[in-house]
UniProtKB/TrEMBL annotation:
<keyword id="KW-0732">Signal</keyword>
<keyword id="KW-0378">Hydrolase</keyword>
<comment type="function">
    <text>Catalyzes the hydrolysis of complex carboxylic polyesters found in the cell wall of plants. Degrades cutin, a macromolecule that forms the structure of the plant cuticle.</text>
</comment>
<protein>
    <recommendedName>
        <fullName>Cutinase</fullName>
        <ecNumber>3.1.1.-</ecNumber>
    </recommendedName>
</protein>
<dbReference type="GO" id="GO:0005576">
    <property type="term" value="C:extracellular region"/>
</dbReference>
<keyword id="KW-0719">Serine esterase</keyword>
<dbReference type="InterPro" id="IPR000675">
    <property type="entry name" value="Cutinase/axe"/>
</dbReference>
<keyword id="KW-1015">Disulfide bond</keyword>
<dbReference type="InterPro" id="IPR043580">
    <property type="entry name" value="CUTINASE_1"/>
</dbReference>
<keyword id="KW-0964">Secreted</keyword>
<feature type="signal peptide">
    <location>
        <begin position="1"/>
        <end position="17"/>
    </location>
</feature>
<dbReference type="Pfam" id="PF01083">
    <property type="entry name" value="Cutinase"/>
</dbReference>
<dbReference type="InterPro" id="IPR029058">
    <property type="entry name" value="AB_hydrolase_fold"/>
</dbReference>
<comment type="similarity">
    <text>Belongs to the cutinase family.</text>
</comment>
<dbReference type="GO" id="GO:0052689">
    <property type="term" value="F:carboxylic ester hydrolase activity"/>
</dbReference>
Amino acid sequence: MTTRVFVILSAVLTMVAAGVTVQLPVASAQGCPDVSVVFARGTAEPGGPVGVTGTSFVAALQTQLGARSLRVYGVNYPASADFQNRLAFAQTVVDGIDDTQREVTSTAAACPRTRIVLGGYSQGAAVVGYAAGDSISVKQQYRRFAADIPGPLARDVRGHIAAMVLFAPPSHRFLDDAGAPDLTVDPALVPRTVRYCIPGDTVCDGAPLQQPNGLHVLYAVDGDTLSAARFAVSRI
């Protein structure tokens, strides 16, 4: 990220810290919750296991769920910023997909009545989108690595996903320029999925591949996390 983006992100962190106080429950909390959030933070994003955007979303969701219990799991992956090494960067995404699928599958098996909400910001949005999608189509130049790409979630497991919220998911142009597979939502999940892209955010608005601008770090404070929480609650 550019220096300007880091300056803006520092301001966002200050605003979130001032306006949001949320205790993120541990994924192994006792019993089965009514709702389980599985959230993947963005590239090198600060703010704990779910990042600044995820923390803002969880706070809004917790408020709107009322008395219903909530568990939060931050996807365990590097969220690497090593854009110069495409194979190493791809590995961090694969790690995120694997961890997302493990958590969703284990939750569905252990807590079949728990409603799962998937979420992600930026690179994390790609991670959860790939994790919940159909088979990932690898570009020709990377076909030799196709066996390393995780397969899709079992159809019955996907049925436990109540909602998926994607903040600043990389656009088709952005992913294509980077040599990455397109991000296609499983048709069965389309009615349960919402995407947010601030106009002018070059990561998600269809602009050519480039460094993110200052708009890319505003999702925690521009009202989108509140809207996403309302959407998720409506699908639970």
